[in-house]
Inverse folding.
């Protein structure tokens, strides 16, 4: 085993929720990701939709138990000293599959080794091992400091501000949007006047979404209310009354991770094609939404596949993007939305 050290850190991350074109829902999850040698460890797994066990909606006692397990203070949850590194974002069932690894002490150091895809108590490293990942040797002081910070509340998912304020004139659209957001795990409230709302309540919001009919004067009043409360929120200008599209815009607004720690960093939709940039190999889906002359919504899945790191140009079906249309690009942890330029 190499004596070279890898750096270890933690950072907030999210699994992007959404309303998919086929009507299915994908749950939003905030979690703490493992940063190895400056990059999320999850990025080494190109086609995996998963979260770490350190998620914001895990009860505090279980969250603490997970941290102490990673520190070696309690027994490993799986046989042979194995720990779940990434698991199913929808449930905690090992049968859904999980990335596991052995975590062991070597003097003051901590070692993560024998990464594998596991669906039952026993694991076959020859058949299901991730042979290109690890082993990683971490300096004990750095490793313990990062995980101890979780116990002190120093690094935690941003789930505390996973609420959105919806402002607009079309109450029926806002009600459907709020219901969809709540279904995927994002709190949503509807209002037209925030001036009388107490500052403590405003601090619970991570984003504010405006409908297309909200005037500049009304938008200015909302921004002023949040400024008086010293609350930094992201403002979303709703592109169209299409629920999956608006959900995708809000998911993007709630992503506070730095650009260098995102997989999906660029989307341009113009000239009958989409230009997409990703920072590491990952699965990307593209969905086109359009409104016809009667304001009916049409959705088309135009691409779904694994892309290598770099820039890609993807042709779009002309029928999918005619008229007023929009493109949503999605990976497991990022969402980008663009109006189709003409």
């Amino acid at each position: 085993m190499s004596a070279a050290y890898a750096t270890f850190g933690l950072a907030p991350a999210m699994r992007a929720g959404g309303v998919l074109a086929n009507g299915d829902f994908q749950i939003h999850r905030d979690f703490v990701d493992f940063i190895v040698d400056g990059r999320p460890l999850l990025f080494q797994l190109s086609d995996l939709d998963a979260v770490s066990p350190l998620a914001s909606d895990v009860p505090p006692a279980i969250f603490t138990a997970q941290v102490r397990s990673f520190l070696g203070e309690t027994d490993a949850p799986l046989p042979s000293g194995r720990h779940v590194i990434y698991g199913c974002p929808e449930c905690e069932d090992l049968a859904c599959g999980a990335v596991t690894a052995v975590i062991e002490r070597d003097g003051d150091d901590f070692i993560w080794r024998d990464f594998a895809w596991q669906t039952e108590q026993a694991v076959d490293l020859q058949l299901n091992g991730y042979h290109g990942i690890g082993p990683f040797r971490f300096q004990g002081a750095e490793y313990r400091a990062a995980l101890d910070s979780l116990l002190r509340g120093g690094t935690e998912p941003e789930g505390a501000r996973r609420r959105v304020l919806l402002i607009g004139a079309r109450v029926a659209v806002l009600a459907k949007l709020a219901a969809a957001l709540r279904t995927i795990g994002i709190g949503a409230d509807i209002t037209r006047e925030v001036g009388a709302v107490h500052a403590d309540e405003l601090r619970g919001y991570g984003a504010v979404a405006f409908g297309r009919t909200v005037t500049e004067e009304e938008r200015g009043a909302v921004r002023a209310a949040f400024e008086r409360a010293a609350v930094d929120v992201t403002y979303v200008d709703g592109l169209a009354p299409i629920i999956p599209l608006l959900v995708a815009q809000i998911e993007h607004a709630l992503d506070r991770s730095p650009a260098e720690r995102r997989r999906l960093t660029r989307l341009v939709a113009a000239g009958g094609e989409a230009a997409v940039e990703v920072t590491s190999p990952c699965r990307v889906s593209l969905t086109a939404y359009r409104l016809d002359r009667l304001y009916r919504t049409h959705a088309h899945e135009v691409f779904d596949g694994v892309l290598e790191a770099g820039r890609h140009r993807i042709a779009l079906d002309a029928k999918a993007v005619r008229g007023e249309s929009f493109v949503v690009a999605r990976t497991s942890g990022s969402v980008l939305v663009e109006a189709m330029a003409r």
In short: The first helix runs from residue 60 to 70. The radius of gyration is 22 Å. Residues 8-158 form one domain.
